[in-house]
Amino acid sequence: MPFFVLLFFLKHVYKIWLSPICETRPYSLLSVYNFSLCFSVFFKASRGQVDEMSIEITFTPLPPHDSLSEQPSTSYTPSNSDWLSMFQIPWERMPAALLHAASNKEKAPLGPRREFVRNVVTAMRELCPNPNLADCGEVAKQIFSKHSLTFGDFSEEGEQLGKGYSSLQRQLKTRVEHVNRDNVAHRIRQPKKNTAEQELNSCTVKKVRCKVDSCGCINWQPTSMPDGETTESLEMKRKVLLEKFQSGGPHSTELSDVDNLMQETYIYQRQMINSCPPPAISDIEVEWPYLFTKRGLCNHFEILTGIDISSRLSECLIGKSKRIVNYFQKQTLKWNAEVQALLKEIEDTPATNNKTAISAILLTMKYFKEKENSLFILVDETSTEMSIETEQTLPATPRLIMLGKHKIYNKQPICFFAVFMVTFHISGDKLLTSSKWMVSIEGKVTHCIEEKLDFAAALSALFGCFYVFNIEYQESASATLELIQRIRFFVRINPEGTKCAAKSGTSRKTGSTVKRKVQNVNPHVHTFLQSLTEFEWKTSN
């Protein structure tokens, strides 16, 4: 029995003394001493003499503290190369309707597609009980490569959305999580970061440019100077532009020579904007004031992305906003109280040229459970640039300032046949009635949209700022902005990536801070587009 007592003692010594040290300071104490501890245990059984037994416990020396950064990560990462190399897509288990759609290169029907996804996941789990998202992506890529038109993500115009198989990848992973919902053994849990580490990561200064900065751009940073140009000649042209702006103001942007000079100095503009650490918006405005006019911004955006954002938004807003509004109005009882209240407000608001376009954006924000002030700021229609900066707390990320709130007065008509007085309160807090707009970035008004221009022009200026000035989408409005960006809605920029790289965000249900998965395509946006397509297909037949 003394032998087992000693084992019990050693177990608790490790648990109480050594284990906490190894967890909190694994490379401090044990790396200093290279030692081994030997115990010899002698005992006699209750009957007879038992041979001497020795137990040697050796603590292997750990690497020195200096080599810590060279050690590979010890966090559990499942290997997917082995089973993926052996995995075969169960094509023989495709439903008949899906085979017919694939042979005719048609879109997959929803029911047969879900059935095939279940069959594929069943086959995957025979080799790997819990495939991760990357594994599901590899399988989805194989399916997409063979039947791209049947399983792929494409717009009405035939443009591929992102990688083309993001929805199929997410559908496979959702099925995997569903079948593993009660199986604790097959779950993969990543170690949580402590609060200090999270704060350190959030406060780290950006030292290099990353892919999100150039997401969707075709001319983000030109490498060769225009013919006959040097840095000195471009600097001289920048000073000429500065003089023209100082003498003619923002209206001088209409001059043809200003457009030519801005185009010739494009590479010089990008060198400043893309410099690291990123320059402040106020510094860019001092050097390149024409970028803070609507015309100069949109011309720069066209060279950057190859898209005339003003004309494209104007065209799309006319017809596609009506489809969005119709989608919500025809299913009023399906939506929550906030969406229903907005639909009632839209119905009661008099028709204007901008009403339908503004309504479509606001309805999608309600659908995504994003607050209106994450993208719009409502101010009095008589406000000026100076008064807005003085009276409002403008956020760092871009906002569209809507000048449409009427002043509120209390009318108090006296009733001569009664002893009391009746008070009527008139409210005019409506984004839908806005007719003038401004854009703010980093706490100040940067763009004032001319009164003759419409909401499409204001939205193009707001959206253009994210790309021209390398600004990530704010997480609080990321779904709405990505919907505007991607297919079928407005701009139709469909890169493999996202403009929102935030790894944490605010829960739309609880309001608390939660971890956020960075995906190529926002799943809420894709779900909305699919629902819109299904609704229009059902109502048209």
TrEMBL record:
Span of the signal peptide: 1-18
**Highest taxon of the lineage:** Eukaryota
Could you list this entry's UniProt keywords, alphabetically sorted: Signal
Name of the protein: Uncharacterized protein
Where does this protein come from, organism-wise?
Cyprinus carpio carpio
